[in-house]
Amino acid sequence: MKADELKQIVKEKYGEIANQSKLQNESSCCGTSCCDSDVDYTVFSENYEKQEGYNPDADLNLGCGIPTDFARINKGDHVLDLGSGAGNDCFVAHAIVGESGKITGLDMTEPMIFKARENCKKLKYKNIEFVLGDIESMPFENCKFDVVISNCVLNLVPDKAKAFSEIFRVLRSGGHFCVSDVVIKGDLPEKLQKDAEMYAGCVSGAIEMTEYLHIIRDKGFSHITVHKQKAISIPDTLLCKYISDNELKSFHSGEIGIFSITVSAEKS
Fold first, then answer.
1. Is 59 helix (H, G, I), strand (E, B) or coil?
2. Least confident window among 16-20, 26-30, 126-130, 159-163
3. How many CB atoms lie within 10 A of CB 23?
4. Alpha-carbon distance 119 to 52, whole Å?
5. How big is the CA angle at 125 (ends 46 and 105), to the nearest 5 degrees?
6. Do strands 102-107 and 78-82 pair parallel, antiparallel, or not at all (unpaired)?
7. Are 236 and 39 in contact (CB under 8 A)?
8. Using CA atoms, how far apart are residues 134 and 138, in angstroms rounded to an integer?
9. 3-state secondary structure of 54
């Protein structure tokens, strides 16, 4: 499948998610009804309810971490959130930067941008903007932002090298990023990796963790730190749709696995 086809799948999937409630998203494994209806659990998401600035209307249960916990955001910073969705992480970041700072959310899905702007309007924030655009080719000038964050989005980007190259470009000198994302350890079975619906559901777009960190380093970032990693427990009812019994045994033995990580790095 070509990159533009994958992007279209992600747009369609997350356009559908934008029109669902958090409750609907919580009752399926990847935000939409890609799993059996009897699977009722959350694979990736973290609980935001105690975060200052949290707004339930903006939380669609799509994250795999809380990048603002480790992003070292300061009052007055200009923060960019990649794949900002309905605005959840933007509103949390806003509570940190205050009125002297600025938040920009970037998303390629029009229904998400619409939903985020509506949420922002209700909250009456004047220093948050939501921009429609592609992470691989951001519509921003060089050296614009102090901090870049992202939550369970970059794994959905077909060309991760382009994504991190763009992050480097838009960060000011001395700026940094902190992203939560999904990565793989070992060789994920091809049937699971290439399935288009699972790709849009945050699993199959992930790459091997060592490769992920290598891309970050290769794009010029320094002081790369993995702050948190957590194994993702996926039920056999889902895995058995994509892998054989023998592959399932390897998955459970820890030879292969899917992890959420939160990683940061600096632009010198």
1. coil
2. 26-30
3. 8
4. 16
5. 55
6. parallel
7. no
8. 6
9. coil
Task: Please state, in angstroms and rounded to a whole number, the distance separating the CA atoms of residues 113 and 108.
Answer: 8
Residue 14, H or E segment? helix 3-18
Distance from C-alpha of 24 to C-alpha of 22, rounded to nearest angstrom:
5
Go through the domains of the chain in sequence order and give each one's CATH number: 3-23+48-184+206-232+259-266 (3.40.50.150)
Query: What per-residue confidence (pLDDT) applies to 196?
Result: 52
Tokens describing residue 213: 């960190």
Maximum CA extent, the chain? 56
250: its two tokens: 């390897």
Give 91-113 pLDDT, tens digit per residue.
Answer: 999 999 999 999 999 999 999 99
Paired residues of 184 in beta bridges: 208, 258
* Tokens read off for 16: 């559908």
Higher per-residue pLDDT: 29 or 239: 239
Query: What pairs with residue 92 in β-bridges?
Result: none
> Side-chain half-sphere of 148: how many Cα atoms within 13 Å?
33
Integer CA distances (angstroms), 132 to 26, 110, 120, 157, in order: 26, 7, 15, 15
CB atoms within 10 A of CB 150: 26
